[in-house]
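Worked example 3. Consider a protein that binds iron/sulfur cluster.
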Amino acid sequence: MVEALWGRIGMMAAYAVFAPLIGGLLDGIDRKISARMQGRRGPCILQPFYDVAKLTKKQLLSVNKFQLLMVMSYLFFVMLSGALFFGGCDMLLCFFSLSTAAMFLILASTSTHSPFSTIGSHREMVQMMSYEPMVLLTAVGFYLATGTFRVMDVIRTDIPVIAYAPGFFVGFAFVLTIKFRKSPFDLSTTHHAHQEVVKGVTTEMVGIEYATTTVAEWYENVFLLGVVGLFFVTSNPWSYLVAALAVFAVYFIEILIDNTSARVKWQLMLKLAWGVTLVTGGLNLFILELI
Amino acid sequence: MKTMHKSPWLLHYDGSSCNGCDIEVLACTTPVYDVERFGVVNTGNPMHADIFLVTGGINSQNEDVVKQIYSQMPDPKVVLAVGTCACTGGVFKECYNIKGGVDTVIPVDIYVPGCAARPESIIDGVVKAVSLFQRKHEEEEKKKNGRHRK
Ligand code: SF4
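Given these inputs, the predicted complex is written out as C-alpha cells:
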C-alpha cells in the first residue's frame, strides 16, 4: 500500500519534471514537420526551448501585476490536472482542474482590458463551450468501459478501453484539435506566424508571462496525449508501446490537419464539435448502455 | 544567456513604402529563403517582438504609430530599417508629408539599403540584427550585475 503510494508520487514528480521536456520536444517536432510539409527546412527541434529561454530574459513590460499571478495559477492548475492524472487519481478531478486552469488563462487575458485579448478571451470561452461536453463524455466513456473513474484502476483492465469506446476516442481526438489550438480551430490564439486578431488571449503577455503560458501548454499537451494513450493501456506491459504509437499517430494527424485546413468561424466550430460529440460520443454511450 | 540570438521574433511595420520592400520581406518567409530556420518568427505583436523591421519612410500620420510600437516592445530590442525609403526617405524624401527615414523618430540600429532591398540583403540585415540583439542583452546583464555588486 505504502509502496503503491510512493509509486504514484513518483509518477507525479516525473510528470512535473519531464512533461515540459517532452512537450517542448513535441512542439519542436511539430514545427519541423510543419515546415517540411510546407517545403521549408524549418527551425531546429530545440527551437521552442530557445524561445522560452529568451522570453524569460525579456523586460517585463506588463500592464498589471495581476496578470502574472493569473498566468502562474494557470500553470499551477494545468500541472495539477496532469499530476493527478499520471498519479492515477480520479479522471473527473483532472478534467475539472483543467477547466479551472482555462478560466485562469481567460482571467489573465481579460485583466488587461486590451481589445485584442478581450476578443481572444471571448473566443477562448466559445472554444471551451465547444470541447467541454466531449471532454466530460470521455470520462464517462472510461467509466462505462471499466466501471471506474480512477486512472490507476483503468490501467489494470484486460481489454483496452478503445474496444468499448471507439466513439469516445474519435470524439476526443476531434476536440484535441481545439485544445491544441490547431487550425481550423485556432480561433483564440495561434502558434503560427499568421495572426488571429494579433495574438488573441496571449496578446498582452510579455516575457516571463508568455513563457509561463507556453510551458503550461506543454504540460497540458502531455496530459491530453496521456488521455489518448489511456485508451490503449491494459494490464499487459506491451500495451504501453501500442499507446505510445497511438499517441504519435494522433499527434501527426493533428499536425496534418493543421497544415491542410483554413481557419473556420466560431459558429461552424461549435456546430462541428457538438455534432461530432453527439454522434460519436452519444452513439457510443447509447450502445454501451444497451449491452 | 548565450542562446538569446537563436530566437529573434520579428515585427514588420509598413510605413509609407511603395510595398516593393514589403513583398521582399514576405519573400524571406517563403520556402525559397525560409528565415524560420534561424528561429525567426514573423509576429504581429509588439509585446512579443525583439526586432522591429520597418519598411518605407515616416510621414506625419505614421510617426506616432512607429513611436508607440517601439515603446511597446520590451527590452532588449533592435530596429532594422529596410529599403532606401526607411533609411533616408528615398524617392519620397521631397514629398510635403514625409519626414525622412525611420531614424527621424526612433533610434535605428541597422540599415539595409536597396530599392527594393533584396531578400538576401534583408536576411543579412536580420542576421546582423540578431547578433546585435545578443550583444544588447549581454550588456544589459552586465549592467544589472554591476548594480547588484554595488
Ligand atoms: S526603397 Fe524602393 S521598393 Fe522599397 S519602399 Fe522605397 S521605393 Fe519602394
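Take a moment to read the result before moving on. The domain at 7-145 of chain B is CATH 3.40.50.12280 (Rossmann fold). The interface with chain A takes residues 1, 3-4, 6-7, 9, 29, 31, 34, 36-39, 41-45, 47-48, 50, 72-76, 137 of chain B (CB under 8 Å).
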